[in-house]
Specification:
The protein has 6 helices and 14 strands. It has 253 residues and is of the alpha+beta class. It has 2 domains: 2-133, Rossmann fold, CATH 3.40.50; 155-252, Bacterial fluorinating enzyme like (Elongation Factor Tu (Ef-tu), domain 3). The radius of gyration is 20 Å and the shape is elongated. The mean pLDDT is 86.
Length: 253
């Protein structure tokens, strides 16, 4: 299976060009995870992958069409194996956000000129081969050109844990980078307040999304194990200003 995560936009024809090239060489199931990643936001793209990773079958090839505005700067398309999947992206640091800097990264395609690498034409043959073989070992290892990015992590102080909203989904749920492990370590079984705004705090967690009448708010850990905030029949973004890039704090004793 080929799965696509891109910032091309829902109305773009570019994903169709990629799919047409792949289907022309092999009858491969193709899954559109999203084409609505904010432009060039590799942090959001890596986060969305984590949200769906446990639903993807082993051997799935995930193509990240993100940061394409900067493709003239990225001379390579690279790949790595992670969590039973094969991940492919520009050499933009995106894959290191998911797999870390020590993963075995392979060069799928490189350009030695100012020619930009286009997914729909320049890597279609390599992509089809990877899907068919289920492997990337035949491609050379990238040695000294790897672009590394570090994930945005929460800041822990003595009485406060501060995270960041990384992703707001189509249901207007705000997803943060505060993991369950970060939360449990900070709270340590004690009292806590999740500060949503100057006047709104929540001191309980929901096991799943809870549906309340009247715009009630619930905080829960999403499928990737990160804290998320939902306002029933409203949005955490609109009610609390928890849009992408905004901070959220947890106060403890």
């Amino acid at each position: 299976m080929l799965a696509l995560i891109t910032d091309f936009g829902a109305d773009s024809v570019y994903p169709a060009r990629i799919k047409a090239r792949v289907l022309a060489s092999k009858n491969t199931p193709i899954l559109d995870i999203t084409h609505s990643i904010n432009a060039n936001d590799i942090n959001e793209a890596s986060y969305v992958y984590r949200l769906v990773a446990d639903s993807l079958e082993t051997g799935t090839v995930i193509l990240f069409g993100v940061d394409s505005d900067q493709r003239y700067k990225h001379a390579e398309v690279i790949a790595c194996k992670y969590n039973g999947h094969i991940l492919i992206s520009y050499n933009s640091g995106l894959l290191s956000l998911i797999a870390g800097s020590d993963a075995d990264f392979r060069i799928i395609c490189s350009s030695k000129s100012r020619h930009a690498i286009a997914f729909s034409t320049d890597i279609s043959e390599q992509l089809s081969q990877i899907i068919q073989n289920g492997d990337i070992d035949q491609h050379p290892t990238i040695v000294d050109k790897l672009y590394i990015k570090k994930p945005l992590t929460p800041v822990i102080q003595s009485d406060r844990l501060t995270g960041t909203v990384i992703y707001v989904d189509s249901k207007k749920i705000s997803h943060t980078n505060i993991s369950r492990a970060d939360f449990d370590s900070f709270v340590n079984g004690g009292f806590f307040n999740i500060s949503l705004s100057r006047h709104e705090r929540i001191s309980r967690l929901s096991e799943t999304i809870e549906k309340y009448e009247g715009g009630m708010t619930s905080c829960f850990f999403n499928s990737a194990g990160f804290l998320a905030v939902e306002v029933y029949r409203d949005s955490a973004e609109g009610m609390y200003g928890l849009n992408r890039g905004q901070t959220i704090s947890i106060e403890g004793k």
